[in-house]
Each structure stands twice: as C-alpha cells, then as structure tokens.
Amino acid sequence: MPFKTPTGGVLLGRLHRGLLMALIAAVMLAVVLPVTVDASTPRGSAAPAGPGQPIGWTACGSGLECVHVPVPLDWRHPDGPTILLAVIRHLASRPEQRIGSLFFNPGGPGDSGVAAVAERGEALDALTAGRFDIVGWDIRGSAGSSPVLCFANASERASFWQGLPVPTTRTEQRRYLAKTVALAQRCGARNGELLAHITTADTARDLDHLRRLVGDRQLSYLGESYGTLIGQTYANLSPRRVRAMVLDGVVDPVAAAAGTEAVLASSLADTDRVFREFLRLCEAAGPDRCALAGHGPVAVRVSQLLTRLRHSPIAVPSGELTYGEALTALKYSGLPDPALWPEVAAVFELAAEGDASVLDAIAAGATSDQARVLLQEQGVALVCADSPARHPATAWPGVVRRLAAVSRVGGPPLGWINAPCASWPTSSADRYTGPWNATTKHPILVIGTRFDPNTPLANARRAARRLGNAALLTHDGYGHLSRRDPSTCVVQATGRYLMDLTTPAPGTVCPSDRVPFDPEFGQPRS
C-alpha cells in the first residue's frame, strides 16, 4: 500500500507506537536492542591459556553459549593484572561441515558483540550456510568487558549533564565545553589504569588470544564500521594469521592514527552528500510516499526548518527543540538506516508544520542514560585512546567549526560529543599507528556503500588500494553498512567469500534490491 502523507494526530499515533521507539533506538549509535542473553556475570570457568583446549562455555540461550575470558590488562606484561572479556558463540547449524569460528564485531565503537551475536547469530549462520560458530565479544572498555564508567550511577550522571544537549549558541558552547573538561577528569579518576589499555591494538591482541582458545589456526573475521579498524589493525599486526576477513563500512586507519579531528572529519566526508540524496529521493517519491514532498522543493523546505531552528528553538510540551538536537536526530537516526527514511521525513514534516514534539522525543534519545554511557563515556574513551586530540579544550570550538564545514549535518553533534578527547587525562600505552599495507596470504574483502553517511566509500577504496592483497566490492546503495540496504548480490558475495575465499571480480558493483521510499524497502522479496 502506498505511503500516504499523514498529518497531526494520525502521524503522532503511528510514531508513538513503534516507529518512535525504533527511531529513538537508532539515535543511540552504540545501543543494541535488548536480547535474551545475559553475559553480565561470569557463566563458566576461566578459559585456559593453552591454544585449542576447551573453554568453559555455558548455555545462555537457544544455540548460544557464553563465557568470560581473562586477558592481561597490558599485553606487554602478560603475567600482570587481568580483565575479563564477555564472549558468546552461536553454534554452527551444520557442525559436520564446520570450517571454524567466524569472529564478528558490530562496530560502535563499543557496540556489544555479545548482544549482536545473540540478535543476529541466526542470520550470520545462514549467511555462511551453517558452517561457522559465530563468535562475538564485548571489546575491552565496553559493555560486559571491564566497561569504562565515569559516574557511580544514572542519577549522578543525570545531575552532571542536566539534560544538556549538543550546543548551538556561544553561551551554550562555553557551558558544554566546561562539562567535557569535567567529564574527562571524572573518567580518569574513576577508571584509572584501564584507560591506558583500551586501544584497538589491545583489542586486536585480545582477538588473537580468543582465536587460539577456540582452536583456529587462522582467523576468519567480519567487522562492521569501527570493527573494520579492529580488522585492519589485526591484519597488519598478524598478516600470516588471517584466513578470511570482511571489512564493511571502512574506518580510515591513517585518519584514526592522525588524531580526533582527523578521524571525525574522515567519517563526515559523505554525510551531507547522503543528506542531499535523502532529500532528492524524497522529492522523486512524491507526497504519496514521502511526507516532505508536495510543498515545493523538499531541500528548500528542510533548509528553511533548519535555518529557523538555527536562529530560535521551537517550543514543545517538554521544553524546546534546538538546532543541535535536530542535527543529532539526523546524524544518528535519520541518515544511517534508509528503512526509516519515510518515517524520518514524516517527523521533519511535522516539525516544518510547527509540531516538533516527535522530533524532540527522538533527539532526546541521545541524552538518555544509556546513550550517555555508550556515546559520551565508552565511545569517547575508545576514540580518545586511538585518536588523541591535537588541540586543547580552549581550541575545540574551532575544531567543531571546521567539522561543520565538512558536514553541516554531522559536524556539530559528532564534534561536541567527542570534545572530551581535548582534555583526556590518559595517553595510551600501546597505540598502533601503522603501517597499514600488510599483505595477507588470502585476499581481504572490503565492502563500501556508495551513499554511507558514517564511513564514506572513499575509505573503502583507499583501504583496498593500501592493503597488499584486497578485493573491493562496491554496494550501490544507501545507509551505513551494506546490511541496512537489501542487496542479494552483496549477501551472496560475502557468504561465498567467507566459505571458499572466492572474491568478486575487480570492479564489481552490487546494486540495491530496492530504493528508499519504496513501500517494500527492507522487506523480504516473495
């Protein structure tokens, strides 16, 4: 049935029932929806150190097993203090044809690999024809693996932030900047030595340890978004141990090593381009399928709304919607998942008509306690560990202005959320900064999506050229990561590669199965 343009109470009714919750969840970059697995406490004996010896797995769901594995806090001192990594596996559905384990990281940085495998294990099992145990883990510093926490509880966190959103005015910026300095100090005081040992190099060494413990001679790995930085780091530290590696939505490791501003700017290179494509497709779809269409040029309508917000917030029952909050909703919810684009358009149309309450509720997801922990504490700690700031806090407003010049939509929210790096109290003990051109025996499969707002296609192209043995697969689609935009071609190519190491022909481009604003976008084909 065509998407009609709902207004007023009809739209609010639809959104406040399921779509609103989906959009709010999408705002939280590192949030994984609740799943029926609990790896928050050790569920089995500590894993032995010997490679190939059995781990003390314990059942934690249908076809799922969990364990906590001790690893050295500092891999340079393997006999020193240890931390625990939460680990999960989804058992291969065809164990008689099992190839080994496929390690999976969903990105973030800091998204829970345990929750991701619990949620997506069956799909990844199907992708590989049931021939791998799918193994996920929470990387050190996040979720269930010695997480970075900068407050004693949610009440203390809420009192500290007092609902403060991404700032718009200079007065708000000064207040927010002071908070980021205080946050960095709190994180240092509460986490101590841990902050020096949460780099991607530390995580790559954890991954190699887990590979040995499950008994695999070489690593098979699928990394998405930030998980591609883990993969590239591992491949350059241990190229002879790579069997198969898929990197989908590539983080540029050269930019990551260069510092906070450089890695953020790299991730923003295509954000506004994707925003323009969202507006173009909306107008082409027409008012029956896109609520923003039918009122003159869509781009003009949205620009007028953002300009209005830039000069003055819009009143809502809970207070007001600011320009920074509208950008936050676009950056973290509106653009990454094209399946939500019709609903995002409807929400922005309501705001253009004067009712910004739904858009405000979506933006408020980024200031929830869970999002504060994952975005502004654990996510920031991981970014600062790999990509230390090159500018002090006093210069950070200038950094945000430069990021806004790269992306009007994404620069301010991403820049301000990562501002604590400018005051970060700890330097990493073991940060890998290159080289990034290692040659693996088997090719690495690099996947880039043409309209990706978080990890531009250019990053994938650079990685494929830089690595000594890599194949590039271009997904001619939309959104952050190829899995968000249906493409049978990408799925088949990925599964075939993981199972038999067959890479696509050079220059292969996989089309999307559908275009956003198609009523059946994201739905299985009959």
Distance between the termini: 16 Å
Percent of sequence in beta strands: 5-15%
Structure annotation, total helices: 18
Approximate helicity band: 40-55%
Structural class: alpha/beta
Strand order of the largest sheet: 1-2-3-5-4-6-7-10-11-12
The main sheet comes to:
10 strands, mixed
Query: Mean of residue pLDDT?
Result: 90
Shape: globular
Q: Describe it for me?
A:
The chain has 526 residues and is of the alpha/beta class. The chain is 43% helix and 14% strand. The chain contains 18 helices and 12 strands. The strands form 2 sheets. The chain has a 10-stranded mixed sheet, with helices on both faces. The longest helix has 22 residues. The two termini are 16 Å apart.
Structural key phrases:
disordered N terminus, two-stranded antiparallel ribbon, 18 helices, 12 strands, single chain, 10-stranded mixed β-sheet, alpha/beta, 526 residues
What topology emerges from the helices and strands here?
Layout: H1 8-27, E1 58-61, E2 64-72, E3 82-90, E4 100-105, H2 113-127, E5 132-137, H3 154-161, H4 170-191, H5 200-213, E6 219-224, H6 226-237, E7 242-248, H7 253-258, H8 260-267, H9 271-285, H10 298-311, E8 314-316, E9 319-321, H11 323-334, H12 341-352, H13 357-363, H14 369-386, H15 396-406, H16 411-417, E10 444-451, H17 457-466, E11 470-478, H18 488-500, E12 509-511
Parallel strand pairs: 4-5, 4-6, 6-7, 7-10, 10-11, 11-12
Antiparallel strand pairs: 1-2, 2-3, 3-5, 8-9
